[in-house]
Specification:
This protein is elongated. With 69 residues, the chain is mainly α. Helix content is 74%, strand content 0%.
């Protein structure tokens, strides 16, 4: 089988498309890793109760309201 060399020029738009696709793939990989970390943590029993979260953020909301007055 013979070999051939192709030289081509890619315009800026094509480079932008390739760059955006790479960013999307990178973000997807990062997101899947974060989901896996969260699932592993939850499966290991590292959970926070809804009551704790509600109380914590109620206090934060109250503090924000107090500061805004």
């Amino acid at each position: 089988m013979s070999q051939a060399t192709f030289i081509f020029r890619a315009d800026g738009e094509l480079k932008d498309i390739v760059h955006r696709q790479q960013e999307a793939e990178d973000h997807g990989a990062w997101f899947r890793k974060q989901v896996r970390v969260g699932l592993d943590s939850a499966n290991a029993g590292n959970l926070v109760s809804n009551e704790y979260v509600e109380a914590k953020f109620a206090a934060r909301r109250a503090e924000t309201c107090r500061k805004s007055k």
